[in-house]
Each structure stands twice: as C-alpha cells, then as structure tokens.
Amino acid sequence: MLIHAQKSLGYEILKMLNHKKIPVLFTGTKLHQVKAIEKQFDNNLIKGLEINLNCIMSIEKFKLEIKSLQYEPNILIYNAGYLSLRSNEKDVNIQKLFQINTISPIILTQFFLPFIQKNNNGHIIFNSPPYKIDEKVKFLTPYMQSKLAQTTYMKSLSKILEKTNISCNSIWTNYPLWTDAIKLRNVGKEINCVHPSILSKVVEEIIFNEDANTFKGHEIIDEYYLKSKNVDPKLYYLGNDIKYLDELFLSHLKNKNYK
C-alpha cells in the first residue's frame, strides 16, 4: 500500500492501517519528516520514502527507489494536495497546483498500475471532489480545476479497470476537516470542524468492505457514504457549531473579497 502520510488525513489513514496490521509504504516531502513518522510506529509494517510531488526529479528518484525495493503495492491512496484560495495566481503557482494535484497522481498511477493489474487485486483512491461546477469556481479557480482534473482521471481509469478486480474511486468531505488548510488560513474554528479521521473511516470501509470487482467510478462523500454504512458522522464532530465545507469556505472567501 502507498500513501502520503506527512500530515492530518494521511497520518490518520496510516494509523488506521497500522492498527489493522497492514504493511504500508508512506511518503513525505522531507526525509526528516518521514523518519519522524517512522519512529512513531515501533514495528516493521511502516516504511517511509521521501518524495516532492512538485519536482519531477524527485518523482523519478522515488520510482528508482521503488524498483530497487521491488515494491508492488496493491492499494494506492492519493491524499496529498496543494490548496490555493486565490484566483489571481501567478504562472508558477498554477504550475504547482497542477503538478501536485493532477500530474503527479497520474504519473505515479501509470507507474504502479502494471503491478496492480498483474495481480488483478486492489484499490485506487483519489482525494478529489465530485465533478460539479458551482459557485466555488468563481473564487477557487484554478485550484478547483486542478482537483476536478483528478476526478476526471479517476473516472477514465475506473472505465479502463471495468472488468478487473481493482476498484477506483474518489473520496471527498461535506465537512471542513480540522487541518492546516483551516487552521493556518483562519477559515474556521475547531467547533466548526470534524476530525480528519472521518475520511480514514471512509477509506477503511472501501478497502475492507467493498467488492473491488464492482465498486468503481464513485465520487464518494463521507457524510452520505458513512450513513449508508450505519456510521454516524457526528462521531467525528469536534464542536457544536459544525458547518458544511462549502458554506465555511465561501463565507471566508467572500469576506476577504477574493477576486
């Protein structure tokens, strides 16, 4: 299994999988951060590698390391992302948005896909939103386009994998997760948010309770999906004034007069 586990969501997924004794190869942007996470898990199930998703040379180095390790994961989880709240991005930032949110996941999937297809067993999970053009686009272009492109790729890939025992889906949240994206930008308060482990629960359900042969091409939203599994999303609430993600971000963007 491969997952980017440097912060928040990735780290929560890593903890869940480690609890279930699943071997995981995780990634982080800086080597010292990778080693720090490894030390938190005193077992042989967790191994980390450095990768900078905004650097092609780093991605190529990572691929060489994977080949030397002869590592063939059957589950890929793409939770890393770069968030920008401005629509007047400079060219360099637009390139970073698409490199991290779109190009790198495609490059890595194409690299690992032959291994998964050879074994004809596994899951590919993208952290990208449902394909819907709404009011957010006015404030979050080009960020939304970079993430929606990932969803489009997921849809295409799920079609390619239609007759295999490999599922391919995307996950997203109805809620603001209490992560740096909210904290550092003062978008909302903890009482407005839910714990990021809500999405690790979604990942758990997909991996352990869905049939990879038939479960493909879904744009999964945590609230509705968990309710269908008889899991109460309120278990992950961090306060008594929970907002919906779109409501919180749009309010913040409008108040800040982003153009």
Kindly describe this structure:
There is one protein chain. With 259 residues, the protein is an alpha/beta fold. It has a single domain (2-175, 197-228), classed as NAD(P)-binding Rossmann-like Domain (Rossmann fold, 3-Layer(aba) Sandwich), CATH 3.40.50.720. The protein is built from ten helices and seven strands. Strands 3-2-1-4-5-6-7 form a seven-stranded parallel β-sheet, sandwiched between helices. It is globular and about 50 Å long. It starts with a strand and ends with a helix. The mean pLDDT is 92.
How would you summarize the topology of this molecule?
Layout: E1 2-4, H1 8-19, E2 24-28, H2 31-39, E3 46-50, H3 56-69, E4 75-78, H4 91-119, E5 122-127, H5 136-140, H6 143-160, E6 166-172, H7 180-183, H8 197-209, E7 219-221, H9 222-228, H10 245-255
Parallel strand pairs: 1-2, 1-4, 2-3, 4-5, 5-6, 6-7
Any idea of the CATH class?
A: Alpha Beta
Radius of gyration: 18 Å
The main sheet comes to:
7 strands, parallel
**What percent of residues adopt helix (DSSP H or I)?**
40-55%
